[in-house]
Amino acid sequence: MTMRDLEQPDRSNWPIEKDELAWTNWNPVRVDYGVDRKKWTQFLDFETAHELFKTSFCFWLTSKEYEAAINSFQFDHSVGLLIDDIVGAANFADIAYNRFPMIIVGPTGLSYRFLMHGFFVEHVHAHLEKMRAAVGLEN
Questions:
Q1: Dist CA 58 CA 46 (whole Å)
Q2: Chain mean pLDDT for the chain
Q3: Residue 2 above 60 pLDDT?
Q4: Which pLDDT does position 121 carry in this prediction?
């Protein structure tokens, strides 16, 4: 799936005022950061685990599905643009590293894109949490 496969969103009601944003589907994320409670699956470093995941991922998808999944990291910029439009901000699209959907990278660049995708998602989540807390809806 690419952005061309999606419909054009209706932007007529955007931006939404901060106090009018609906947070009804927003659930708090509880993470235990303690290193003393490792699960049995936590014995590999990230890069090794990611390479093993990519290998098994390839077995279950067609080449077209695999390419679409890998290139979906490049939705970050498009998602950032939509969030900017919805909340009336101008910073989400700028922090997206994965922003050129027509440039396909090889396997060596995928781990880096995956990492940058994670940074983008974490930053967006933290910023939206701050917006939510600003209207008195803290967890």
A1: 18
A2: 78
A3: no
A4: 87
Residue 40: other Cβ atoms inside 10 A: 5
Instruction: For residues 110 and 54, give the distance between their C-alpha atoms in angstroms, rounded to a whole number.
Output: 9
And the tokens for 30? 């509880």
Q: Write the single-letter amino acid at 133.
A: A
pTM (two decimals): 0.67
Q: What is the DSSP string of the chain?
A: --GGGSPPP--TT-SPPGGG---TT---------TTS--TTTTS-HHHHHHHHHHHHHHHS-HHHHHHHHHGGGHHHHHHHHHHHHHT-SSTGGG-S---TT----HHHHHHHHHHHHHHHHHHHHHHHHHHHHTT---
| Cα–Cα distance for residue pair 15/50, rounded to 1 Å | 38
The residue written with tokens 């990230």 in the block is 46
Query: Taking Cα atoms as reference points, which of 114, 132, 128 lies closest to residue 83?
Result: 128
pLDDT tens for 66-122 read 777 666 666 788 788 888 888 888 788 888 877 765 666 676 677 777 788 888 888
